Amino acid sequence: ANYQYDAWGRIISITDSNGVEITDTEHIAYKSPFRYRSYYYDSETRYYYLNSRYYDPNWGRFLNADGTIGANDDTISHNLFAYVSNSTINMGDFDGNVAGSLAYYGAGALIGAAILAYPVLKKGTQAIGEFITNAISSTKDAVKEKVKANTKSKKNEQFKTQTKIYRKGTTNYQLTPRPKDQDGLSFFTYPSYGTGNYTVTTIELVNSTPDLKVECDTPVHCAIKPKFGNINDWISTKLIANDSPHRYTISLKSISWVETIK
Question: Confidence class of residue 147 from pLDDT cuts 50, 70 and 90?
Fold first, then answer.
């Protein structure tokens, strides 16, 4: 399948090898999650997941704020929702934190592949196939570890001056309000239910999103609710949240992490 995009990643057309447009949504072209810039595409929300944040190609902006002001060392990246400093032709963002030159990534990958592959090319097609399989596996593992290390380091530095809030449970269902939660999704400033897995974020992070806010009614209890609109729209998705989460749940999960209290 061939995908055609505009500069911001909006899909213009999907065609087969003969140039015929594919309209059948059950076709493998629609099932493949790897699309523009090889980002992971969520077909339910039509957002791209860049490992730490969701990117909306229709807005040309991230859903959530960057954790570092001026991460790309330029004026535009002081807008914490900006994507690749608006330089979509020349730059990509492969972890949602810092943009990089596409030429740099491409050249590095080609040179590295050539150096590593040369000894293998002499051994025939079977060895080449094994090499490619191992290389893909190793690259995935390396990227996961790098993202995990960067995320942990960033959290430790960024959140030590922010107010953490906790909610017991980590599933989409547990991060969607119930009909009686008209005042919002409850969080506490401490692990209120003892041991177990908690979804953790900060008041500052939630308030930095374009669609969610935090309101606290006591020193230890807060609620997350929509900045605009009626919370019932969010509530109505609770029973299907694990399979088809509301965009508020997706937004909340993108700025949260899991902590296990023992």
Answer: very low
DSSP code per residue over the chain: -EEEE-TT--EEEEE-TTSPBP--TTSHHHH--B-GGGPEEETTTTEEE-SSSEEETTTTEESS--SSTTTTSSSGGGSTTBSGGG-TTTEE-SSSS--EEHHHHHHHHHHHHHHHHHHHHTT-HHHHHHHHHHHHHHHHHHHHHHHHHHHHHHHHHHGGGS-EEEEEB-STTTTS--TT-TT-EEEESS-TT-SEEEEEEEHHHHHTSSSEEEEESSSSEEEEEESSS-THHHHTTGGGTTTS--HHHHHHHHT-EEEEE-
Q: Could you give the CA distance from residue 53 to residue 253 in angstroms, rounded to a whole number?
A: 9
Burial of 45 (0-12, 13-18, 19+ CB in 10 A): middle
What pLDDT sits at residue 187? Answer: 97
Comparing 2 with 146, the larger pLDDT belongs to 2
Please say whether the beta carbons of 37 and 90 come within 8 A. no
**199: nearest Cα among 258, 158, 250, 141:** 258
